[in-house]
Structures are given as structure tokens and as C-alpha cells.
Design goal:
This protein is an alpha+beta fold. The protein contains 2 helices and 4 strands, in the order ββααββ. It has one domain. Helix content is about 25%, strand content about 25%.
Length: about 80
């Protein structure tokens, strides 16, 4: 299904179309797209931030989206 998403602090009239199974997934996919376009968004969503989600012609609903950054470390022996 296609949803429209908007970051609450951005222009509330600038909706981005996201395809997802439900509203929660649409909100997270939208934030993934923002982060892929500009890594600065990782810090903006690290403590949680509101995303508005709606279907075309429908009422929007707010979702708090949080980015959890889990570090991954790898060790290899040096020869």
C-alpha cells in the first residue's frame, strides 16, 4: 500500500510517498530514506522524532521513530 510520510519538523506540506504493508513500517522506511540521503538524520532520530503518516485523502497519524545505532566490531589476526 502507498502511504504519505512527513517529518513533523519539516514543512508539513512536503509529503513523501512510501510503499509499505502498514503505517508503522511506512514511518520507519521513510526515516531510512532520510538517513540514506543524509547521514545527519541519524543523530536527529537517535532520541526519537515524530513522523506523520497518512494515506492519500486520509487523516495523518504521528509515529515516534527512533534510530538505534548498534556498533559492530570485527577483529582479525594480523600476520
Amino acid at each position: 500500500m502507498k502511504y504519505l510520510c512527513c517529518w513533523a519538523l519539516n514543512d508539513p506540506n512536503s509529503w513523501t510517498e512510501v510503499e509499505a504493508y502498514d503505517r508503522e513500517l511506512a514511518a520507519t522506511e521513510y526515516v531510512k530514506q532520510l538517513c540514506a540521503g543524509d547521514p545527519e538524520y541519524y543523530s536527529r532520530f537517535s532520541g526519537g522524532n515524530l513522523v506523520q503518516v497518512k494515506i492519500v485523502g486520509g487523516k495523518s497519524q504521528a509515529y515516534e521513530v527512533t534510530v538505534e545505532m548498534l556498533p559492530h566490531f570485527t577483529a582479525r589476526p594480523r600476520l
